Amino acid sequence: MQPTATVLVYSDDSNTREQVRLATGRRPATDVPQVEFIECATHAAVIKELDRGGIDVCVLDGEAVPSGGMGICRQIKDEIFDCPPVLLLIGRPQDAWLATWSRADAAVTLPVEPVEFASALAGLLRRKRLLSA
Hints:
The chain is an alpha/beta fold. It contains 5 helices and 5 strands. Strand 3, helix 3 (69-79) and strand 4 form a beta-alpha-beta unit.
């Protein structure tokens, strides 16, 4: 198992980024690596970090402004070769169809509920590990 997993967290709201960090803790589950975060507050920063490489999972805030995570998700799925899995934070459960449109791999609602979020993140990290093996 790799020593750490790198998770990119995008939100214009520092409180949302903090919720993600706190819900994850050091690792979201015992069978996945410890997590290191790269925090981004702008669309440009997300693209720059993904171009740099080394991201295992992206967590994108669908409610961010001016660039929402749903639009960014759709863009990176089209433009980034071997795009990492995306966990989308959505405003309400009824927005799940928009998460599907954006090609997100998983979605959870805001505010971040720690157990639900950690489970979804761990699932994407497991999937990424299986696909990389």
